[in-house]
Amino acid sequence: MKKGAVKHLKPILEDGHDAEKQEALKVLWELSFNKDSQHLIQEDASLMDLLNTLKKHQNKIIARNANGALWVLNMSQRMGKAAQKPVVKDGHVMISYQWGNQKMLLQIRDKLRENNFRVWIDVDNISGSTLQAMADAVEGASAVLMCMSQRYKDSPNCRTEAEYAFALNKPIIPLLMERSYRPNGWLGILLGSKLFFDFSGKYPFEKKLDELVRELGHTGLHGASEKDVTEWLKNNKLAGHKSLESLSGENIKFLQKLSQRAPEFFFTYLKQDLGLRSLNDLMNFSNAIDKLP
């Protein structure tokens, strides 16, 4: 990017109509991913001041785009702070997606939670600063599901999430959301030749979900909180059993091993120690254990 490009954008940001400012800021946000362009923008003090003013604009799109550009421009500082935090061992599975695919991703979220994965998706967790919530989610992730489509690739917001996850060396698992789509440009470079899971509708949903669960392995399981266990019990029709609510994620994983290695003792323990007397309770718990990765 040449300095002349900034000169063309600045007058629009200063005096343009709101719609023009929105587009100019989106261009600036996209340019901020390029290292050479980034330095030129950062060296222009008046432009940086303008961005800091526009991030508080009453127009939400203007404010969002200005915040997005600033966040990318300051990403290296954020990475420095993230590097000082403890390494995440038992984090969540983060879903990074474009809103056009939300319905499908909510189904995937629910199925993963039924398998006792801790899942982060924006609709459940966003409050206050969207970019701050996104950054915290990436930093706390043990794996990131990157839901690729043309709209994902064209979204500077999605690119911000993806680039930050890549910069922090987070394990990335691509999900194909658009039939026959092949990532190119920045997304193609970032994903390289990674194995992807096709949720475009070409294959049965349950088949691909089983493959995804196997790929994720134990991610997000041993770090299951009391709330996660309660949610797992609820999803598997086991809510209300006080003895089950005291179980930890590791307890549940041990019971899974027990069910495979010593099934007779497993069922005796369920009945005598955990108080599961009815056939339905025994069936629900056994089925829930079998579904775990």
From TrEMBL:
<dbReference type="InterPro" id="IPR035897">
    <property type="entry name" value="Toll_tir_struct_dom_sf"/>
</dbReference>
<dbReference type="InterPro" id="IPR016024">
    <property type="entry name" value="ARM-type_fold"/>
</dbReference>
<dbReference type="InterPro" id="IPR000157">
    <property type="entry name" value="TIR_dom"/>
</dbReference>
<feature type="domain" description="TIR">
    <location>
        <begin position="93"/>
        <end position="213"/>
    </location>
</feature>
<dbReference type="InterPro" id="IPR011989">
    <property type="entry name" value="ARM-like"/>
</dbReference>
<protein>
    <recommendedName>
        <fullName>TIR domain-containing protein</fullName>
    </recommendedName>
</protein>
<dbReference type="Pfam" id="PF13676">
    <property type="entry name" value="TIR_2"/>
</dbReference>
